[in-house]
């Protein structure tokens, strides 16, 4: 089971960057992400493709998201079908149905922005978020994972995972 979402990353001067994520529910590992200055469908397709590269295959996986236009788009639905992924969506207008992804986004913003309102520049947003995502998978301990990092948890419980089901 995978979950995904998009969050905005506020940048000084009033602009935003956008982060699309794909998280494995078993290990809480961020298996795919993409950062861009737009919120077009290729943002979420890039994140899903990165998850496929990380796992080798997503055939049989379920991908849960909200009803955002990028997730309901023909292009994203087609990519899911091509990869053998079944889409699942929560109720319209309730973030609780995608709580894992929403919690990840809140933690990222809290830990990366450190009480600042925005990133200094798009470059800083990309750099800081990328570094945090790498650290999250490799070093950040998670209560769900018996206080191991997501990658350590996967390695201890399953060895190398190739499928997220």
Can you walk me through this structure?
There is one protein chain. This protein has a single domain, classed as Ribonuclease H-like superfamily/Ribonuclease H (Nucleotidyltransferase, domain 5). The protein is an alpha/beta fold. The longest helix has 17 residues, at 122-138. The protein contains six helices and five strands. It has a five-stranded mixed β-sheet, with helices on both faces. A hairpin with a 5-residue loop joins strand 2 (15-24) and strand 3. Residues 1-158 form the Integrase catalytic domain. It comes from Corynebacterium timonense.
Per-chain topology:
Layout lengths: L1 E10 L3 E10 L5 E7 L4 H15 L6 E4 L3 H4 L1 H10 L2 E4 L9 H15 L8 H17 L11 H8 L8
Parallel strand pairs: 1-4, 4-5
Antiparallel strand pairs: 1-2, 2-3
Helix pairs in contact: 1-3
